[in-house]
Design a protein that fits this description.
4 helices; mainly alpha
Length: 125
């Protein structure tokens, strides 16, 4: 559940960023850069989602969802780091693909992960 919430908040953060620039007044400074605290939220969500995925992959009974969660997180990580370091010119909307994938995968894992014992969703390893 934490992963789904964190992924959803991350997605809202990604959607809200362009609106932050639209409503921001540009009379004093140029509005080409986001505030530093807003940029660090990206890393905050990456850290939370890392631990949420780690926990989900430890307890998931779905063996195929584990690599998809990690792949989505890694793609999100690459897009965010690329955005900061500008390695490649990528469409800004690309960030939505791994963010939405994380939300869907976490919700799917939560829905189809049935708890029958004290240890929820024992791994199939």
């Amino acid at each position: 559940m934490l992963g789904a919430i964190a992924s959803t908040l991350c997605l809202i953060h990604c959607i809200a960023t362009p609106f932050l620039f639209i409503v921001q007044t540009c009379s004093v400074t140029c509005c080409s850069a986001a505030p530093t605290w807003w940029q660090f939220i990206d890393y905050f969500f990456l850290i939370i989602s890392f631990f949420a995925i780690y926990k989900s992959t430890q307890t998931s009974s779905n063996s195929w969802i584990k690599p998809l969660l990690w792949l989505s997180w890694f793609l999100l990580f690459l897009v965010i780091v690329n955005e900061k370091l500008e390695w490649l010119v990528l469409n800004d909307n690309l960030i939505y693909v791994p963010a939405i994938a994380l939300v869907i995968l976490h919700l799917y894992n939560l829905k189809y992960c049935k708890c029958n014992t004290n240890r929820c969703c024992i791994s199939d390893e």
